[in-house]
Amino acid sequence: MPRGGLGVREAGAMADAAVTAQPLSLPEELVLVLLNEQTGYFHQVPGWDLNCAVIGAVLAELSLQSRVDTDMESLTVVDRTETGDPALDPILKDIADEPVQRSTRYWIERLALHAESIIDRTLDHLVELEILEHHDGDYWTLARNRRYADLYGYSGEGTAGQFIKARISEVLFTDAIPDPRELIVICLVHTCDVFRFIYELDEEMEERIKFICNLDQIGRSMADAVEHNIASPLLRRSALSKQIPRVALHRLLRSPHLRTGNLPALFADLAEQYGPVFELRPPFRPPMLFLAGARTNRWVHRNGRLHLRSRDYFADFEKIYGASGVLPSLDGADHFRLRRAMSPAYSRGRLEGRLDQVYAQAREFMASWTVGETLPATRTCRRMINAQISPLSVSVDTQDIIDDLMAYKERALNTHIAKVLPKFMLNTPGMKRRAKAVDALLERVQSVHTPAQRAGCPRNLADDLLSLHASDPQLVPESNLRFALSAALIASVYLGDALSFSVYAMASRPALHERIRSEADVLFEDGDPEAEDFSPSNIDVTQRFVTECLRMYPIVPMSMRDVMNSFVVEGYEIPVGKRVYIAQTATHFMDDVFPDPFSFDIDRYRPPRSEHLGPGYAPYGLGTHRCLGSRWMDLQLAVNLLMIARYFTLEVSPANHDLRFSPFPSMKPSRKLKFRIAAQKRELSAGQLAGRK
Ligand code: HEM
Predict the structure, then answer these.
(1) Fewest CB atoms less than 10 Å from the CB: which of 204, 229, 312, 442?
(2) Can you say whether the dihedral through the CA atoms of 186, 188, 193, 194 is positive or negative?
C-alpha cells in the first residue's frame, strides 16, 4: 500500500512529469539533501564530517545491496560482485582486497580521502539522470516536475530533494520505526549537522534524531569517526602551513615575458621557480599574492565561493558609474539569483536566434575594406564586434561613441582596479569629456526601450535588465542601470580583442587560414547557415583554432578577490583580509598541462589529448563568476573568423612583425599590430549586405 501525501504532490497530478521509479543510492540522496536551493550550492559541512558521511553512505548502500555486513567489531564483505555503480565498486574492491578484517569506523576514516571523487561522480550521475541541473559557474539546481512512482513505498511529485525530505519528515514526526534506508539517510544528515537548515529543531526532535541514529551500526561508526576526529589536529592550519615565497625583483625584471607583456607566461615561469603560491612586492604598492597552477585553479573553482569575495575589489570601480552590487561584484545567494535571471540574455541560444543580424553587420563592416589597405588590428576588430553587439544587446548603434566608452572604461579599470595609474588620471579634461558617452548611451537605450517600440522585437539584454529592474528593484536598482546597460558594450572590448588575436593567428598561418576558409565555404555555399549548421563537425578546425587562440592569448589573464574566510591551499595559509590575484591562465603556459606550450597546435584539443578539459584551461575564468557569455563568445568569434576568411585573405603587416602584448587592464595586441588586406576572394553583394529577413 503506497504511502504518500507528504508535502509532495500526489502522483498523476501532472501528466508531463518525468517518472522516477528507480531508487537513488544513499550517496545520491545525501548530496540531494545537502543542496541549498537558495544559493544553488551545498550547505556547508566541515570537510572531515562530510567525508565521513559520504563514505558512511557508500558503506550503508553496500550493506543494503547485501555486499557487506557489519557488526560491533567488523565490517565484512559477503559478496564481492560489482554493483555497477562507479561510486560504490572501487570501495567494495578496496575492502574485499584487505587481508585483515577491520571495523566500520576504521573503513570510514581510511576511505574518507576518496569522498571528493565520490561526490564528483555522484553529481555527474544525478545530472545524467536529469534530477540535478548543472549551471555554468558550478551551480546546481533541482529539476522540477518529477514524479516518484511507488518508490520505497511512497508516491508523489516534486523535486528529488522534496521527496527525500518528505520521507525523513514522516519518520521524525511520527513514532514509526524507520526502514533501514530512511534510518541511514537520517544518520547521514545528522552527521553533517544539516537538520538545523531543514527544520526548527526542538529538544524532543533532537532526542528522536539521536535515538534513530543509534539504531544503526554504520550510523554509530560515522558519529564516532566525526566525534573522535583524530585527523583534525593534522589538518590544523598553523601546523602545516608553509612560508609564502617572495619573488626577487631582479628575477622578475629579467623575465623575457615581462618585456613582451605576456602575463600568463610570466606567471607560469614564476610558479615554476617559486611554486603555486608566491608574493610579489612591486615598488610603491602593497604586496600582491598570486595563485598559479592547475591545482590552485581547481581549488578556486571548487572552493573559492566559500573563502573569496568579489565585492571589495570591484566596489571602487562600480562606484564610478554610480552603481553598487552589479553582477561581477555580488557574492553568495544574491549573485546566484541575479546570474540565473540574466543567463538567457547571455546565452548562446540568444545569439543563435540573431545570426542574420550578425551576418549582415559583419558584411556591412567589411564592405569598406579594400585590397592593399592596412588596418590597425585592435581598433578594427573592436569596432567590427561592437557593430554587432550593440544592436544585438541594446538595439542602438553606438559606433560614434564606442571609442570614448572604451577609453573611459579602460582608464577607470587602470585607475580603480588594476591601479597601475593614480586615481586622478580618471578626471583629466579628456576623460571627463569621454565620461559623457556613458550618459549618451543610457539616453539612447532608454529612448528606444518603451513598450510600444519594443512590441514584437526579439528580446535583448536591455529588455531583460529593464524588466528585472521593474519586477525586482532591490536586485537591480535604478542606480545600477547606468553600469549594467553599458557593461555589455564595454565587455565587447574583450571579444574585439579576442578577434584581433585570432585574426593575427590566422593571418600569420596561411595553411590554417585556408582550412578555416574551406569550412566557411561549405557552410555558406547555399546561403547563410542556420544555427544548427555550426555543429562541432562542421566547424571542427575553426572551433579548435579559437580554443587555441584563447589559450595562447587569453584576454583576462587573472582575477582579483579578497579573502573573507582564511584558507589553506597547497599547504599555504592565506589569512582573512588578504587580496589574492588568481593567475588562472598561467597554466596555459605550463608544460605539464599544455605540452610545448609556445607552439600553436590545434590538435591538442583532439581526443585522446583533449588538453582543454580540466581546470588548466581557463580563458573564461573560474568558479561562480565564470564568464556568463562564454558559449555566446565562442560562437560569435567563430562566425566572424569564418566570414573574414571567406571574403578576404589577410596578412600581418609588416610580415616580420613580432607580436607584443599590451596587458593592462586586459590583454590585447600592442597598437603596432596591423593587418593588410592581401586579397578579396568574393564580392560582398548588396543582397547579402542587407542580410536575410
Ligand atoms: C572572448 C571574450 C571574453 C572573455 C575572454 C571573457 C572572460 C571573462 C572572465 C575571465 C570573466 C570572469 C571575471 C572574474 O572572475 O572576475 C568574465 C565574466 C563575465 N563576462 Fe566575460 N569575457 C568575454 C566576453 C564577454 C562579453 C562580450 C560579455 C557580454 C556581452 C561577457 C559577459 C560576462 C559577464 C556578465 C561576466 C560576469 C559573470 C558573473 O560575475 O557572474 N563576457 N568574462
Answers:
(1) 204
(2) negative
